[in-house]
Design brief:
By secondary structure, the protein is mainly beta. The protein is 0% helix and 39% strand. The protein is built from no helices and 8 strands. It has a 4-stranded antiparallel beta sheet with strand order 1-8-3-6, with no helix packed on it. Strands 2-7-4-5 form a 4-stranded antiparallel beta sheet, with no helix packed on it. It is globular and about 35 Å long. The mean pLDDT is 87.
């Protein structure tokens, strides 16, 4: 298992690369006040895709029937937010 801490900014940022061997992914928004938007397989866009509220998380796994192995991009609309993977 690998952990990363990509910063989400006001420009789309790749948080994790495509990985056909991925079995599980947990993303946490470590920001106290900024929403983060995520998108698999394409650039992230504000107010589109998967929204993570401050302190929120998203889990992708075969067990949840939502496993996605494509690259994951993130974005938000102010400052810098930490996404924990």
């Amino acid at each position: 298992m690998a952990h990363t801490n990509p910063d989400a900014t006001n420009a789309t940022t790749d948080a994790i690369a495509e990985n056909s061997y991925r079995k599980f992914l947990l993303v946490q928004n470590d920001s106290a006040s900024l929403e983060v938007y995520m998108k698999f397989g394409a650039n992230a866009v504000l107010n589109q895709g998967i929204r993570l509220n401050p302190g929120g998380s998203y889990e992708s796994s075969a067990e949840n029937h939502n496993l996605d192995t494509r690259r994951l991009a993130v974005i938000h609309n102010g400052g810098t937010a930490n996404a924990r993977l």
